[in-house]
C-alpha cells in the first residue's frame, strides 16, 4: 500500500469571517488551510481526507485542480463557522451554525501515512478509537483548539478535553495557544504546562503566543521561536493551521525542531498579510526568516 508523508484528516468548513474592515464568506477549516498551504511545496507526498456535504464539493474539486490528492467521505452537512475578529486579530469570537458527521476508523483503513494531522474543528470529530488506530500506523499531530470547543445554541464555549488523558498518550505533536494550554493543564506557566503535557504522552509540545512568537518543548529542551513582524495585518484566520503546515512539512523533511518552528512562524506571518490561505513559496518563507524583524518570546 502506498504510504504518504503527511495525511491531513478534517472537515472543510463554510466560514464567515468578520473583521472591523470587512465581511468575507469563504471555505475554511484546518483541512482547507493546510491543503492550500502545503500544495506550494512539491517535494512532499501529501493527501487530504475530508468530509463535507455535496453542496461544497466544488471546494475539493478546486483543490484537486491545484494538484492536491483528496479523498472525500460524504456527509449530510458541512461545518459552518462564523469568525468575528476585533481590531487585535489575536482575539476571535466564534459561532457554529451547522455540524458535519464525525470521522470513523473504517473511513481511513486504506490511508497509510508517516504523519497524520487530525484537524479537529469540534470535540466529537475524532473518536478515541480512531486516534488509537492511526497512531499504530504513523505519528499523530493535533491542534487542540477543536477538542476544546463546545457548541451551545450555535455559540462556541471553551471546555476541557473530555478524553485528554487517554488521547494524548497517542499524540506525538500537539499545538496549543496560551488559553488552550491553561484549559488543558490548569497552568499559566508555559514551562510547567509543557512538562505536564509531555508527562501525559505528547513528544513535541508547540505553544503559540500569537504575535509574541511560540515555544516548543521536546522533553529535553525549550525552543523559543520568534514571531516575524508582518508588513501588514489583513486576516488571521488560518494562521494556526498555516503554522502547523510549516512545522509538519519541515519535520517530515527531516528538519530540526528549531528549524521547523522558524519556518512555521514565517509561513504564518506571510499568511496573515493576505485574506485567504497561504499562497507564498518556500523561498519567500526562507527569505522572511532572514530579513523580517523578530519578536522573541519571553517565558
UniProtKB/TrEMBL annotation:
It holds the Pfam family PfkB. Keywords: Kinase, Transferase. InterPro entries: PfkB_dom, Ribokinase-like. Coiled coil: none annotated. GO terms for molecular function: kinase activity. Residues 115-276 form the Carbohydrate kinase PfkB domain. It comes from the Bacteria. This is Sugar/nucleoside kinase (Ribokinase family).
